[in-house]
Amino acid sequence: MWHKLQQRVEQRQAQSLLRQRLTVASAQSCELKVEGQGYLNFSSNDYLGLANHPKMIEAMQHAAKDYGVGAGASHLIVGHSHHHHALEQELADFVGAERALLFSTGYMANFGVLTSLLDKQDLIVQDKLNHASLIDGGLASEAKMRRYAHNDTEALQRQLQSPLSTDTNSTFETKLVVTDGVFSMDGDIAPLQSIHQVCQQTSAQLMVDDAHGFGVLGQQGKGTVSHCGLPSCDIYMATLGKALGGFGAFVAGSSLLIESLIQFARSYIYTTAMPPAIAAANRMGLKLLQQEDWRREQLNKNIALFKQLAKQANLPLMQSDTAIQPILLKSNELVAKVSAELKQQGILALAIRPPTVPVNSARLRITLTAQHSEEQIVRLVEVLQKSVQVVSKQVANQTYEL
Ligand SMILES: *Cc1c(COP(=O)(O)O)cnc(C)c1O
Predict the structure, then answer these.
(1) For 49, what's the count of Cα atoms within 13 Å in the CB-facing half-sphere?
(2) Are 239 and 102 in contact (CB under 8 A)?
(3) 107 and 256 within one domain
(4) Contact 151, 127 (CB under 8 A)
(5) Which residues, in sequence order, are bridge partners of residue 236?
(6) Closest Cα to residue 235, out of 205, 191, 198?
(7) Where a domain ends, among 240, 263, 291?
(8) How many CA atoms lie within 13 A of 234 on its CB side?
(9) Active site residue 212
(10) Distance 216 CA to ligand 1 centre (A)
(11) pLDDT in tens, 20-70
């Protein structure tokens, strides 16, 4: 085993695919301290700048005084505190669902939903670019899983209509369509209106993973479902560690959905509850994101400014109007080197490479937040333009005419 692992790690390195961690020595903000150096941060999912908000910190400190640090047990034993319970009710009210259920992470929420609700007679149909946690949950589920080409609702419809087995022409009992609301590595928004329509025509259920839409899109930040003008979806999931600035995740929907997850979702049942003080901080985050529209307005201004400047600089933007603005450089080597060059210049914009994204679609994943200033965005584009020019001259066959 060890010999093989050594080879696999070395192979990654040779292909410019080795993943490495930064050690951050400051709170999340548009400026970060890493190894004693200050950097401009364009890689955070803290879209509204709430992760380090004084009221969030205060809420956590207060709750820690009353409830201590550890939850001490799982939700079904004695780990479910007042703050957890209140947060669930507040989240359900906010997104307009009957009930909501907290999970310790978004990964566990997606995995729990897809592995607990369906069986062999059922079908899961997922967008090809869905988040890894959805793909893993679908693979671990007893249900059959199919994947459709990104945002292609006709392909989705074909997948839903093709039978369980061609010889018997037998049909599936339950069909569940699963899509990201905002795609995490591309930044584009799922066409939820047409997906919803296809679901209605084929009697399929709809699950939306809104990790990057919740707090950012829609009225008061209610998310992508609201942004697309739908009243609701059958299973709504979002994380609390991104725009909300806290940690954890929730699933919202009918009472029966939530009761079923409590009974059957192993990633809910067999794990310690999130610390109560985190739940308290999440409650504050939910309040702030509802109350402070100016954060979404500022974020949208920053997105528009970045897109305008990047277009002028001829940078290869993707089709995205959200805070996720990838620069599609394609080559692993080019993207790794541009990212390293940016770091040299004091800017953190991390390289996203296969297998996180398809082969030949490596990109710099730029994320904007409400905290970035105009000068910071101007500087980002200037340095980006220069770095791509310089590096593409060094990397054979990867010239970008800028
Ligand atoms: C981040 C993310 C998750 C996982 O959420 P965590 O709380 O970080 O585990 C799930 N889905 C999508 C689309 C994400 O971007």
Answers:
(1) 20
(2) no
(3) yes
(4) yes
(5) 208, 252
(6) 205
(7) 291
(8) 19
(9) yes
(10) 15
(11) 899 999 999 999 999 999 999 999 999 999 999 999 999 999 999 999 999
Domain total in the chain: 2
What are the respective helix, strand and coil percentages of the chain, to the nearest 5? 45, 15, 40
What pLDDT, in 10s, does the model give residues 244-294?
999 999 999 999 999 999 999 999 999 999 999 999 999 999 999 999 999
Q: Which of 116, 133, 184, 387 is catalytic?
A: 184
- Neighbouring CB atoms inside 10 A of 286's CB total 23
Q: Would residue 150 show up in a list of annotated catalytic residues for this protein?
A: no
Dihedral of CA atoms 84, 87, 92, 98 in degrees, nearest 10, equals 40
Pocket lining: 353 vs ligand 1, CB cutoff 6 Å: no
Annotated active-site residue in 53, 75, 196, 242? 242
As beta bridge partners, residue 101 has 251
β-pairing, 362-367 vs 123-127, is unpaired
On whether both 300 and 239 belong to a single domain, the answer is no
Specify whether 55 is catalytic.
no
Model confidence pLDDT, tens digit, residues 180-190: 999 999 999 99
77/126 same-domain check = yes
Are the C-beta atoms of 52 and 44 separated by less than 8 Å?
no
> At CB < 8 A and 24+ separation, what contacts does 41-44 make?
41/348, 42/347, 42/348, 42/349, 42/366, 42/367, 42/368, 42/372, 42/380, 43/348, 43/349, 43/350, 43/365, 43/366, 43/367, 44/367, 44/369
Burial of 328 per CB tally in 10 Å (0-12, 13-18, 19+): middle
292 lines ligand 1 (CB under 6 A): no
